[in-house]
Amino acid sequence: MRDHGMTLATGVARGDSPGILHQVTRAGQAAAIWTRQREAGLAEWIDGVAVENLPQARCYCTAQRARAVAQAACEGAGLPIGRAHEVLCDDIGALAVLFGQVMGRSALHLRLEVVRDDACRKFHMDQVPARLLCSYRGAGTEYGLMRAQGDPQPVCRMATGDVGIFRGALWSGDEMSGVVHRSPPIAGFGAARLLLVLDVLGAAQHGR
């Protein structure tokens, strides 16, 4: 159990270059978000894929193997090979490598999943050292500062295609994250999200 007398990290670093994600390892930073535009061809393609044909995967792998995992998921879903398909796989591979660099770990757990309900509608902190989230299709993750009572106010939302790294409850060091997040409510709207989730395995080396 974490000591509730620990320093509370409440910062959320935001920027339009991938280097901003390294800020999550800095003192006082609970999360870092890379704000970016979806590549036009990828956005049009992924939004047009039938929900039942969206790629899905769940496995342990090294950061260097993530692209191959994404490629196999696309092939398993019967998606035709094309430029947008390659852009998606390249991006997943690049994010895995970047996440591994930020965290000083190469072993990851990768999930590429289709979300159609409100299964993670409650604000929470993950039981991992850190988690990377990117919604390739559909609304992005919501987040905010935790409160003793009720949901965060205000609630912020990542844009589709943004990349966020959030410290989890198992982050090592003398700080506890004060930022919680959740999947945006979508049940009843006929929407579907394609969400990439990367978890680092083992203690975060930069949690000091």
Using brief descriptors, characterize the structure shown.
three-stranded antiparallel β-sheet, globular, 3 helices, 208 residues, 12 strands, seven-stranded mixed β-sheet
- How many strands, which pairing sense, and closed or not: the largest β-sheet? 7 strands, mixed
| Tally of helical segments | 3
Query: Quaternary arrangement of the chains shown?
Result: single chain
Would you tell me the structural class of the helices and strands?
Answer: alpha+beta
- What is the distance, rounded to the nearest whole angstrom, between the alpha carbons of the first and last residues? 18 Å
CA gyration radius, whole angstroms: 17 Å
Mean pLDDT: 90
Low-pLDDT residue intervals, each spanning 5 or more residues: none
Number of strands: 12
What is the topology, as strand order, of the major beta sheet? 2-3-9-6-12-5-4
Q: What is the helix content?
A: 10-25%
Proportion of residues in β-strands: 25-35%
> What is the H-and-E element order?
EEEHEHHEEEEEEEE
What characteristic shape results from the CA principal axes?
Answer: globular
